[in-house]
Structures are given as structure tokens and as C-alpha cells.
Automatic annotation (TrEMBL):
PANTHER family: TUBULIN POLYGLUTAMYLASE, TUBULIN POLYGLUTAMYLASE TTLL11
Gene: ttll11
Keyword presence, Nucleotide-binding: yes
Protein name: Tubulin polyglutamylase TTLL11 isoform X2
Basic and acidic residues: compositionally biased ranges: 16-25, 67-76, 612-624
Polar residues composition bias: residue spans: 48-60, 77-89
Lineage: Eukaryota, Metazoa, Chordata, Craniata, Vertebrata
One Pfam family this sequence matches: TTL
GO biological processes: microtubule cytoskeleton organization
Length: 634
């Protein structure tokens, strides 16, 4: 075996009642058969309090030894076994310990000098991490970056890329064979059918549940149970099945008062971006086709007195995150968008019913108007931030805290209305015991403010646009996508903070039941809490979360509305076949006999009536100046 050399810095300590004097000595030690790399540092001299310092060592060659066996033999014996031998140069003046750290193994070999100048091996210590842990050091574990599959992201890809980069996560734009932590889909839960773990940003059944007809039915069910609580949704009729009912009711209204001439808006069931929407003033104007060509949709009362800014009609696009269904968790983005019409508003008449730039706020329609204003400013242009509009209203004396509180209530009530059927869809696609991902989803709520500042729900989008660029004509007939600062400001924050909330590396905090309950029914929902939402940013480089939890934070005010959800839970529990969503006549009779009897049905109906009467009684107290209660939020 060839000789190998290592350069060692040795600290010598003088003690035995005298002040310690540190003296650095450079020596060369011949170390046959030691490990590939080692650092040597002197430990405390015997009987002193001097601290030890790790010293770097340079060494070549391969290790054939197993350092660390406890031995009290002479260093020559140790050397013969492949252990480390220390030079005796300048080391026989004092008795002290020396420590050799063998890099790559994490082991530490300690030796002690004897009065005759020889060295003996004392022991091999635990690895460095264990020693540091015993000494109180906290070892930070290097965390594996969260992986995101963006292969199905579609139009939200650019905002998603920026968000992933800000979080320092890892993107897989083409997917990968091994599972990712998060899958971002552009359309539906079924964009990728082969996911058995991780998290997907879509719920199964959400697209179907938020179509115009199904949303109207869900809200109507709640209106029948709690009419005053769900008065934020315009009266609606489902086409074509309720066409006769619609025409009969409108004719009756006009017969009672000839001066009444309401306007209605017709929306196709699966329409989006304003496609197929038009206004009518008489049922005969409905473009209704029969037979197999019949178009399904809804017809709603048109809000004739909206709040105007700069004499223009506008609506609010609010982003809402459903983090989970069980337990139900809802977050609302503190920042949203306002989309303005591009033609000065006038109340609808037979002459202007076809003026879509006056009556319809859809961005996809107004962007084609010659009056549409693209602006880098957040407070001007045809698309602005919600905060800029609220500040402008506040400057005019509007109680924006009250407005924001009403909007939060509208969102929570709407989600409560759709959750029962959504849970049935979820059960059908991912039944208990079947491998599958967990889900979350960002929804787009379109809300209109009336002249009296009451919020009205227009629709809920299961796939709100997350595009951060817009199409612009840069030359006659030549269109390009250019960045939109307003869209980027809002949408990147929503996506980034949604990912932060869904980070699989953060354990879900245990929320005390009392805190989770929130405020009592009828209490005002504050616009901002005194304690801000805690950011889950470990690096301190990200802003605070732009998403505010509203449920279960305010659950005490709204839990009494979750009556239909309890029935849905029984339905799900009763389903005999996993993945089944329908009950046949025989199964339904068995369901009723198993779970219900006449007294239970009567009790359920009585509970419904009592809750409804309770809400009405509370609202009367509010109107008379009594104490606030469950009838209203404020």
C-alpha cells in the first residue's frame, strides 16, 4: 500500500489552572488506508472548557478501514488495522483529545494522547446529525419541490407557469410517468382519466352542475325552502319544459297592470362568453324550437336598474376556491375584475333590445366593440380591478363593507345550494375505497350590483378564463395576443395562492371547533379581519394570501341552510352499487322504507317550515330596529 498524506491543523490548549493559550500547528500525517475524505478537529483538552473547532483535511486514496471501533491499543496497532494514526510531532506536551471526521460516512473517530506521547482510540461517535441534534441544533431538511402536471392546462398555462416559477416548484409540461403532486386541467376532471393519486383542480360533475338549468334548479330548491335567503337570484323559467308556465304568468301580470312591461333575458343552457344570449319583452319573441331541435336554456327577469359607473353598466367577476367538499371549505379572492359595457346604458326598450354592448357585460362580446378601451391602469379602461371600483364607490359615500359582506353571503349560499348534487357526482366518480385523487376548483362568480347596491347572481362559471393576455389588432386585419397587466395582477395571484393552499407539503392545521364556527347568525361579516390570513410562504419572498376563507369561518350563520345536503348524504349512503347515481322505483321504495317513516317525513317538513318562519321573524325584527339575527347578515 502506498503512503498517503493529509495536512492537519492542530490546536493546542494549555490549561491546568492557567489561561488557555491557542496555538496553531501545521503537521503532516501519514495515514495509510484511511477513508477518501476526512476533516480533523481538536476536541476539548482534558480538564478544560475550551470549545472544539472542525478543521478541514485533504486526503487521497481509498479507504479500507472501518473507523470507529473502540480500542485502547497503541496507535501502531490501530494503524495496522486500517485506522487513523496521528503524528506525534509536538503532541506530547499535554493530554488532550483529537477528533477525526470521516466525510461521506458521517462518523467521528476520537483519540486521546497519553503522558508517554502515544495515542489511543477512545470511541467512534454517532453521526454528525445525531450529535448536533443532541446539542440542540435544528437540522433543516431540504424539501422536495412540489410537482405540477400542466400538460392539460390550455388557456391558463401562462398564468400557471408564472405561479409555479414564483413558488419555485417543478413543472412537467408534457406530463410524466410517475405521479405528480398536482394536475392542472383546462376543462374538466376527465381531461386525464389515468390519475390515481395527487390533486386535480376540477371536481367531477362541476361542469354539469353549473349549467344554467341545473344551477337554476338548485337555487330554486333553496328558494322554496328559504325564500328570503335566496332572493339574490332572478326569477327563472326552464326551457322548453316551462314555456307554457312562463307565457301564462307573464300574460297574467300584464292583464293586472297594462303599464307593466318587464324585460327578460334568454340564456342557452350550455352557452358561454355571451354566446346565444338575447333580450325579449314578450314570450312570443322566444326563439324556441320544438322536437329534437329544441334548445334548452333558461329565461330570467332582466335587472333594469343596475348600478352605473361613468353611465356604463358593469358586472363583477369574483374568483372563488372550493378547497374541499368534505369538510366544506370555501375561499374568496380579495381581488377580482369588473367588466364594463362599451355603450352608455339606457333602460331596455323595443328599440335598444338588440344593443348587446349596452346590456351585456361579457368581455368576449364587448372586446369587439370599437369603444372597448385596453388600459394598463387598474382603475380605467373597459376592464378594471374590483378594488379600484370599490374605492371609487367608497369615495362617494357607499358602505363598501356592507356590499362586501352581502357578496360573501351570496357566494356561500350559492355553494351550499350546489354542494348536495356535487357530492353525488363525486361519489359516482370516486367512490370510497377506489384509488383516486382529491379535488379542488376555482369558480368564476358573475355578480351584478343593483342601484340599491344589492348583489344579484348572474351565473357561475366552472371554467373561468385565466388567460393573462388579450387579442389586439396591431395592424389592419392582423391580430396578436398582447399581455394584459390587469388580468395578470388578478389571475396570477389567484392561481399562485390556490397552489399554496393546496401544497401537499403543508399539514392541515387543526381548527378548534369554536373558532371554526365563525360568527353567529345575523352578525356582520367583516371586510377584513384584524388577523390577516397566515401566509404559507417559508421563504418570506411571497405576498400574503389573496384568498380569504369564508367557510367554515362563518359557518354558524349558514349551517341551517345545509338541509338538502343531509338528504344527499343519505342518498349517497343508500346507493348499493358504487358509481350509481339513480334510484329505480323499487330502490326508491326501499330507500323510503329503510330510512323514513311518516313521522320522520312530517318532522322534516316541520323543521323546514320552522327554519323558514324563523328567518322571516328575524327579518321583521331587523326592520323594526330589533337585534340582528339569522334573517340578515347585517
Amino acid at each position: 500500500m502506498s503512503d498517503q498524506y493529509v495536512k492537519v491543523q492542530v490546536e493546542q490548549m494549555k490549561s491546568f489552572g492557567e489561561d488557555a493559550e491557542k496555538e496553531g500547528v501545521d503537521t503532516e500525517e501519514q495515514v495509510p488506508g484511511s477513508s477518501p475524505s476526512a476533516s480533523v478537529s481538536p476536541d476539548h483538552p482534558t480538564g478544560t472548557d475550551a470549545s472544539s473547532t472542525s478543521l478541514p483535511c485533504k486526503q487521497t486514496g481509498k479507504s479500507r478501514s472501518k473507523p470507529g471501533r473502540e480500542d485502547k491499543r497503541h496507535t501502531s496497532d490501530v494503524a495496522s488495522q486500517g485506522s487513523v494514526v496521528s503524528s506525534e510531532k509536538n503532541l506530547n506536551r499535554l493530554g488532550y483529545e483529537r477528533t477525526l471526521q470521516v466525510k461521506g460516512t458521517g462518523k467521528i473517530l476520537q483519540r486521546k494522547s497519553e503522558p508517554n506521547g502515544n495515542y489511543v482510540t477512545i470511541h467512534t461517535s454517532k453521526n454528525i446529525e445525531e450529535m448536533r441534534r443532541e446539542e440542540g441544533f435544528k437540522l433543516a431538511k431540504k424539501r422536495r419541490p412540489v410537482t405540477v402536471d400542466t400538460s392539460k392546462a390550455k388557456t391558463s398555462l401562462e398564468a400557471l407557469k408564472i405561479s409555479i416559477k414564483q413558488l419555485k416548484w417543478k413543472e412537467f409540461p408534457l406530463g410524466r410517468r410517475t405521479a405528480c403532486d398536482i394536475y392542472w386541467h383546462g376543462v374538466s376532471f376527465h381531461d386525464n382519466e389515468n390519475i390515481v393519486s395527487g390533486q386535480v383542480n376540477k371536481f367531477p360533475g362541476m361542469i354539469e352542475m353549473l349549467r344554467k338549468i341545473n344551477l337554476s334548479r338548485a337555487v330554486r330548491t333553496m328558494q322554496e325552502l328559504f325564500p328570503e335567503e335566496y332572493d339574490f337570484y332572478p326569477r327563472s323559467w326552464i326551457l322548453p319544459e316551462e314555456y307554457q308556465q312562463f307565457t301564462t304568468q307573464i300574460h297574467m301580470v300584464k292583464e293586472k297592470d297594462a303599464t307593466v312591461n318587464p324585460t327578460f333575458i334568454v340564456k342557452p343552457d350550455g352557452g358561454s362568453q355571451g354566446d346565444g344570449i338575447y333580450l325579449i319583452r314578450d314570450p312570443s319573441d322566444l326563439k324556441l324550437m320544438t322536437g329534437s331541435q329544441a334548445k334548452q336554456g333558461v329565461v330570467q327577469e332582466y335587472i333594469q336598474k343596475p348600478l352605473l359607473i361613468d353611465k356604463l353598466k358593469f358586472d363583477i367577476r369574483l374568483y372563488v376556491l372550493i378547497k374541499s367538499l368534505e369538510p366544506l371549505e370555501i375561499y374568496i379572492a380579495k381581488e377580482g375584475l369588473t367588466r364594463f359595457c362599451t355603450e352608455l346604458y339606457q333602460e331596455p326598450s323595443q328599440k335598444n333590445l338588440s344593443h348587446v354592448f349596452m346590456h351585456l357585460t361579457n368581455y368576449s362580446l364587448n372586446v369587439h366593440s370599437g369603444n372597448f378601451v385596453h388600459s394598463d391602469s387598474q382603475s380605467t379602461g373597459s376592464k378594471r380591478t374590483l378594488s379600484s371600483v370599490l374605492y371609487r364607490l367608497a369615495a362617494k359615500g357607499v358602505d363598501i363593507k356592507r356590499v362586501w359582506s352581502d357578496i360573501i353571503a351570496l357566494v356561500i349560499k350559492t355553494v351550499i345550494a350546489v354542494v348536495p348534487e356535487l357530492r353525488v357526482y363525486y361519489q359516482a366518480d370516486i367512490p370510497p375505497g377506489k384509488p383516486g385523487p382529491t379535488c379542488f376548483q376555482i369558480l368564476g362568480f358573475d355578480i351584478l350590483l343593483m342601484k340599491n347596491l344589492k348583489p344579484v347572481l348572474l351565473e357561475v362559471n366552472s371554467n373561468p378564463s385565466m388567460r393573462i393576455e388579450h387579442e389586439q389588432e396591431v395592424a389592419p386585419g392582423v391580430f396578436e395576443y398582447v399581455p394584459s397587466p390587469v388580468d395578470e395582477e388578478v389571475k396570477v395571484g389567484v392561481i399562485r395562492d390556490t397552489l399554496r393552499l393546496m401544497d401537499p407539503g403543508h399539514k392541515k392545521p387543526t381548527v378548534p371547533q369554536q373558532r371554526a364556527g365563525g360568527f353567529e347568525q345575523g352578525e356582520e361579516i367583516p371586510m377584513e379581519e384584524e388577523t390577516q390570513e397566515k401566509s404559507q410562504d417559508e421563504t418570506g419572498t411571497l405576498p400574503s394570501l389573496c384568498l380569504k376563507q369564508v367557510y367554515p369561518k362563518y359557518s354558524k350563520q349558514f349551517n341551517y341552510l345545509r338541509l338538502v345536503e343531509r338528504i344527499a348524504a343519505l342518498f349517497i349512503r343508500f346507493l348499493g352499487v358504487k358509481g350509481n347515481m339513480r334510484l329505480g322505483p323499487t330502490a326508491f321504495r326501499t330507500f323510503i322504507r329503510t330510512w323514513w317513516n311518516i313521522s320522520q317525513l312530517k318532522r322534516l317538513i316541520s323543521d323546514m317550515k320552522r327554519e323558514s318562519q324563523r328567518g322571516e321573524s328575524c327579518r321583521r325584527k331587523d326592520a323594526k330596529g330589533g337585534s340582528p339575527c339569522c334573517g340578515k347578515l347585517l
